[in-house]
Design goal:
Strand content: 15-25%
Order of helices and strands: HHEEHHHHEEEHEHEHHHHHHHHH
Number of strands: 7
Number of domains: 3
Distance between the termini: 79 Å
Radius of gyration: 32 Å
Length: 406
């Protein structure tokens, strides 16, 4: 026969099995697990609070109070947010007060830091302050407001300022420049402002977000201000080999004045401009001939392919052919660099992909109420992207680059 202990084990196992089956049948296993974990946390924390009270008093719970000692005065119910909802705790109370459990202080500080961190991350990812507050309150049982979330975003300012002033990574060899326009509130009304962005690639082909400037337009002065900022934070002209950008006049003038190094114009931009001047029925074949020029294995082969394109299409698509040939030297500067880097240097795809991510994040906001909001959002996107770049090695296939023309 089974002894009492064995019988109890069997009964407990059967009860647990029955409870799990009931939960699975109801499709609510996650809720049950969360409730059980919450219960374990509450038990552990309440036990620790009692232990801290006894340590403070210098006697066990069962010990009588000395005649001149401090008396226990029961417990006060309190609620704190936890990982699986609200934690119901019993705070020990003394008749004369003065006792603040270290565990509660740590819980409040840790919970506050967690809420602030999550709030900032949700906001950076695209949620409004109101949506962030509602989400946190729903998950953790808190009572945060949109104003509280706004305060958390304001608390990011010291981190953002330090990030803006940080020294640049050493060994930047290739500099990518591009701009996008955002709606920003200026003098009481919303206006389109140019956000100028710079990304660098070092000798090991690792990518780095370098800096930005907000200006009224893509003027030479605005681009010069960005380049001066990069130079002041460590961009080395002697190491820098090439600038890659589109053919905007402001960029060209600023690079010539501030850097005086070779400048590669984006082949993909040229390809897009050429394509729209060719009839749909001939676009595929024309672009195949176009890629033979700018994806050639050498500059000489590119010139030969260009001659073939002119002979084949010159009569049917004169404008497209002229545009293909125009500024040939400025679009083939990459041939002067190592062949392994050509695929990356032919276009501004690297920085354009980053700017697309910025547009995606800016879109839910609409108009920016002030420049610092814009900068904080940029900081969030740039630091997240930098973490991804730090984990991967640059690889750009021929197919990937040509697909950007679509």
């Amino acid at each position: 026969m089974k002894n009492i202990q064995q019988s109890l084990k069997v009964l407990v196992k059967e009860k647990v099995k029955a409870q799990v089956r009931a939960v699975l049948d109801a499709g609510d296993l996650q809720v049950w697990v969360e409730q059980e974990i919450n219960g374990l946390l509450e038990d552990a924390l309440n036990t620790r609070l009692k232990e801290e009270r006894d340590e403070f008093l210098g006697r066990e719970s069962s010990a009588a109070c000395p005649s001149e000692g401090i008396y226990r005065n029961g417990f006060r119910k309190m609620v704190l947010p936890g990982p699986f909802g609200r934690l119901k705790l019993n705070k020990p109370v003394l008749r004369e007060g003065g006792f603040i459990p270290r565990t509660l202080e740590a819980l409040r500080e840790g919970t506050g830091n967690l809420m602030a961190h999550l709030g900032r991350r949700f906001w950076i990812k695209g949620a409004s302050t109101r949506s962030v507050a509602e989400e946190l309150n729903g998950v953790f049982g808190t009572k945060h407001t949109a104003n509280q979330v706004s305060q958390w975003t304001q608390d990011m300012e010291p981190m953002v300022v330090a990030w803006e002033k940080r020294p640049l990574a050493e060994g930047i060899q290739y500099l990518y420049l591009d701009a996008l326009y955002v709606s920003l509130k200026c003098m009481g009304s919303y206006e389109n402002q140019a956000l100028l962005v710079a990304i660098g690639v070092d000798g090991t082909m690792h990518r780095h977000f370098l800096g930005f400037v907000v200006g009224d337009s893509e003027s030479k002065e605005s681009w010069s201000a960005l380049l001066e900022d990069l130079l002041s934070r460590g961009l080395d002209r002697k190491v820098l080999k090439l600038v890659v950008s589109d053919a905007h006049a402001g960029i060209l003038a600023a690079v010539e004045e501030k850097l005086s190094i070779p400048h590669q114009l984006c082949v993909i931009h040229k390809m897009r401009n050429v394509r729209v001047r060719v009839a749909a029925k001939d676009q595929k074949e024309f672009l195949q001939d176009f890629t033979k020029v700018y994806w050639a294995d050498s500059k000489n082969q590119a010139l030969i392919a260009l001659g073939g394109l002119k002979a084949k299409w010159g009569k049917a698509y004169r404008k497209a052919v002229e545009m293909t040939e125009k500024d040939f030297e400025k679009y083939t500067v990459f041939f002067q660099q190592d062949a392994k880097d050509w695929m990356l240097l032919r276009s501004t795809n690297l920085i354009e992909r980053f700017n697309r991510e910025l547009r995606r994040r800016f879109k839910p906001v609409g108009g920016m109420t002030n420049e610092r909001t814009l900068v904080k959002l940029l900081w969030g996107v740039a630091t997240a992207q930098q973490e991804r770049w730090n984990r991967i090695k640059v690889h750009t296939s021929r197919k990937e680059v040509k697909s950007q023309a679509a």
